[in-house]
Design brief:
The structure is a homodimer.
Chain A (H helix, E strand, L loop, with lengths): L2 E2 L21 H8 L4 E5 L4 E3 L7 E7 L1 E7 L5 E8 L3 E2 L12 E4 L3 E7 H10 L1 H27 L2 H18 L6 E3 L4 H8 L3 H13 L3 E4 L2 E4 L2 H8 L5
Helix pairs in contact in A: 2-3, 4-7, 5-6
Chain A binds a DNA duplex through α6.
Chain lengths: 238, 238
DNA sequence: CGTAGGCTTGAGAGGAATCAAGTGCGGTGG
DNA sequence: CCACCGCACTTGATTCCTCTCAAGCCTACG
């Protein structure tokens, strides 16, 4: 049993500026609280949901780190994203009332369970919530456009640089260091996300280290030369 | 001046089963009609909207064919999708109240303009519409997952086969042939979408032709061996 | 203290990019 | 109506980036 019926108020959550309640006033906030029926703990390597599971709820990540992945019939799989605290997960399930990807915790995690029919009901009444739900979905679409650009037109070094900059930027928005962080995922998972093999990811990281751009110790990464990393994406030759 | 104030009812539109009104009953249909403020013609090569344009409306494609593309600072660009009649375009603009990609007509086209604030207002009242808007956005997210799988883990032949099968399937849903169709886009645009060069697209198509899977004459494509095309995606070796 | 999983590094192969001609269709203008 | 021109496309030769296969290391964990 990994569900718990602990009541926690969005209004007192330190993620409220990043998460579901973002942009809502105090009055509406109280009504959002009612949506978060319960919280659920997910242990490392466990799935929050899998492909084919009936869709009932969206999940707001309260702590921990997830990956989402899709699989094709022939066993190939592709990591479609890494999600961290304050981000909403499960949007893929809305179309067909069942999930079309797996969400796997990369470390022990806790999520707020938000039954979707309640979100819909409340967003019919609270315009700010309706707007916010639309924005969350649109943001995901735009994010994926960026991934398509990365996968479709960038070389290995550019992909990895873009990935690391994106990661550190999102972590920084959550109060972490601008330059130092711990990778929650393996080289293989990074590779899957970036359309590269784990060897290429490893080699590219080693190159960044010998170039003096990064300092890497296992999963610990320190960005020594942020400008150099940004230059990797927009090659000086262009 | 490429805007026209022609009033056309969704209720009498032959795309109503595929488009915005899908799944709505007769009563709600009438209310949707009110949303489609006007229609707009877009000539071949013209843009419906560009990156940075203020976002005001979603567009339902009534006729014609579009591509959407994103550009990075250094001039690279990536085709993020091809859209045909009945599909909704412009969802990228919701997050930041401005568009983050370009929509370009690949042939003379006509779209129904649906002011987004009106969609929001009506979907607060009509639950079926609310549900449908959510589904449209979720469908786009899931579609992009599929593209990420394609770009991240497939080889050139697999990508092209998946692309052609997807195209013919969508065309078939609109009453066109299951086996024969006209490509509305250039080899270069296909290549951009699939993360390949135009030469590789051309070579791969030639190979499919010499394998007896396709019959190609310029933009005209006939799928001779649909099963063979499907086998390209799931290689027998797996 | 042993082991397994994650990671690094090397060597070689291969698939797609790049560079380079050349073809042919469609549109334009004489 | 026909000739010319440009753009899209095809095809070939070569390069190169990344994958694949392989070996060994390190570290965390039991």
């Amino acid at each position: 049993m990994n569900s718990q019926h602990i009541k926690v108020a969005c209004s007192s959550c330190n993620l409220r500026e990043l998460c579901m309640p973002a942009g809502l006033d105090a009055g509406d906030l109280a009504r959002i609280d009612a949506i978060v029926a319960r919280r659920r703990k997910v242990k490392r390597r466990e799935t929050l949901f899998r492909t084919g599971d009936p869709f009932t709820s969206l999940f707001a990540i309260r702590s921990g780190f997830f990956k989402t992945r899709v699989a094709s019939e022939d066993g190939r799989d592709q990591v479609t994203g890494f999600q961290m605290a304050g981000e909403i997960i499960g949007l893929d399930g809305i179309v067909n009332d069942q999930h079309s990807c797996d969400a796997v915790a990369l470390e022990d995690a806790e999520v707020c369970v938000m039954p979707f029919h309640q979100i819909e009901a409340l967003s019919r009444e609270v315009q700010a919530l309706q707007r916010h739900v639309h924005q969350i979905m649109s943001r995901e679409i735009v994010r994926e456009h960026g991934v398509m650009l990365l996968l479709g037109s960038m070389r290995a070094e550019e992909r990895l640089a873009a990935f690391l900059l994106n990661l550190v930027q999102r972590l920084h928005a959550r109060g972490f260091s601008q330059s130092e962080f711990i990778l929650r995922m393996t080289r293989e998972e990074i590779g899957s996300y970036l359309g590269l093999t784990l060897e290429t990811v490893s080699r590219t990281m080693s190159k960044f280290m010998s170039d003096g751009i990064l300092d890497i110790d296992q999963r610990r990464v320190r960005i020594v030369d942020p400008e150099g990393l940004r230059r990797m994406i927009n090659p000086p030759g262009c």
